[in-house]
Amino acid sequence: MKTLEFSNGDKMPAIGLGTWKSAPGEVGKAVLDAIKAGYRHIDCAAIYQNEAEIGEALKEAFDSGLVSRSDLWITSKLWNDSHRKDQVPAAMEKTLKDLKLDYLDLYLMHWPVALKNGVLQPKSADDFLSLDEVPVEETWNAMEALVDKGQARHIGVSNFSENKLRKLTGCCRMRPEMNQVELHPYLQQRGLLDFCRNTGLFMTGYSPLGSKDRSNRKDDEPDLFELPELKEVAKKHDCTVAQVMIAWQVNRGTAVIPKSTNAERIQQNLEAGNIDLDNDDMEKIAKLDKGYRFIDGTFWEKEGNSYTVESLWND
Ligand code: A2P
Questions:
Q1: Of all protein residues, whose CA lies closest to atom 4 belonging to ligand 1?
Q2: DSSP character string of the chain
Q3: What are the CA-CA distances from residue 157 to residues 181, 218, 260, 312 (Å)?
Q4: pLDDT tens, residue order, the chain (315 aa)
Q5: Is 107 assigned a catalytic role?
Q6: Burial class (CB in 10 A: 0-12, 13-18, 19+), 308
Q7: Kindly report the CA angle at 99 between 93 and 100, in degrees rounded to 5?
Q8: Hey, which of 181, 206, 209 would you mutate to test ligand 1's pocket, going by the most ligand atoms within 8 Å of its Cβ?
Q9: How far apart are CA 240 and CA 209, in angstroms?
Q10: What is the spatial distance between Cα 111 and Cα 310, in angstroms, rounded to a whole number?
Q11: Whose CA is nearest to atom 18 of ligand 1?
Q12: Distance (Å, whole) CA 157 – CA 148
């Protein structure tokens, strides 16, 4: 399995199991199926509200001798309602307790958006705190302290634009090492990828298959599985379109976290790491870019607050 090697020598497997949208009652089995299939990277987040079940599965994997803690790369994310410096340690404690771990390999600030404590999904402007009230630098400094404490081996961000990264890297003690963003053939983010490469940050692609199982799906959303170009590449390599989308990310040097709770698809997605796309394939896929976001950030726009889609992605 291809890995991303961090500056201290730690290696993150390029393909991880995504757990966003993995339902209670299913996610634990998915994690165990994934580990049995050979996954060594699991991507979690407090807001997915399934970390306790994942923790049970991890414990079972360790207790049964399937793997040991040091074999796995576990990522989790700080939710937006805990951005104040005195709230970050408690959020980390809760995630560690739920996952039944004493450290994370990677802890990410989930969004550059702050919510009042206890708000999971905002309903009105009143649920937000502005970035003037809680600057990302305050949150970041508290995350740096988690590395000092040994609770996080690496820290990073998610859904950060180039400008926000530039600002953060310019003033922090520890530089972010990861930016997890939406990536797939319709949203290739080449400018951001170049910036991250030149700045020593890795990228992880979320929604690599277009997240068709989202509850807030729009009727007219494109279906990446139906793109003729991807079908052609899949036919050429005798693999599935999903595997082409995953292999494309591995080939670009990013990590990728396809979500599945189906044992066969979990296995299939990991095997995508063995598919070598050639230059023709990569060029064909490069031409598909449309700058199209499935996760467009409009859910952060509430009348009267300071967050806009424009300020999120193009500030
Ligand atoms: P399932 O969990 O039933 O396998 P994303 O990773 O972009 O969020 O996409 C997740 C969606 O893609 C889920 O609906 C998941 O369904 C589906 N999926 C995951 N792997 C595959 C695959 N190999 N082939 C087809 N659909 C897949």
A1: 260
A2: --EEEPTTS-EEESB-EE-TTPPTTTHHHHHHHHHHHT--EEE--GGGT-HHHHHHHHHHHHHTTS--GGG-EEEEEE-GGG-STTTHHHHHHHHHHHHT-S-EEEEEE--S-EE-TT-SS--SGGGEE-TTTS-HHHHHHHHHHHHHTTSEEEEEEES--HHHHHHHHHH-SS---EEEEE-BTTB--HHHHHHHHHHT-EEEEESTT--TT-TT--TT---GGG-HHHHHHHHHHTS-HHHHHHHHHHHHT-EE--B---HHHHHHHHHGGG----HHHHHHHHTT-----SS-SGGG--TTSS--HHHHH--
A3: 9, 27, 23, 13
A4: 899 999 999 999 999 999 999 999 999 999 999 999 999 999 999 999 999 999 999 999 999 999 999 999 999 999 999 999 999 999 999 999 999 999 999 999 999 999 999 999 999 999 999 999 999 999 999 999 999 999 999 999 999 999 999 999 988 999 999 999 999 999 999 999 999 999 999 999 999 999 999 998 988 999 999 999 999 999 999 999 999 999 999 999 999 999 999 999 999 999 999 999 999 999 999 999 999 999 999 999 999 999 999 999 988
A5: no
A6: middle
A7: 80
A8: 209
A9: 12
A10: 14
A11: 260
A12: 18
Phi-psi region of 122 (alpha: psi -120 to 50; beta: other; left: phi over 0): beta
Residue 107's identity, in one-letter code, is: Y
Place of tokens 């296995």: 267
Nearest CA owner, ligand 1 atom 11:
211
Residues comprising the chain, all counted: 315
**Ligand 1 centroid – CA 151 distance (Å):** 31
Strand bridging mode 3-5 / 11-13: antiparallel
Quote the CA–CA distance of 79 and 223 in Å, as a whole number.
29
For the whole prediction, is pTM greater than 0.85? yes
Determine the residue of 204, 259, 270, 271 to mutate for testing ligand 1's pocket, defined as the one with the most ligand atoms within 8 A of the Cβ atom: 259
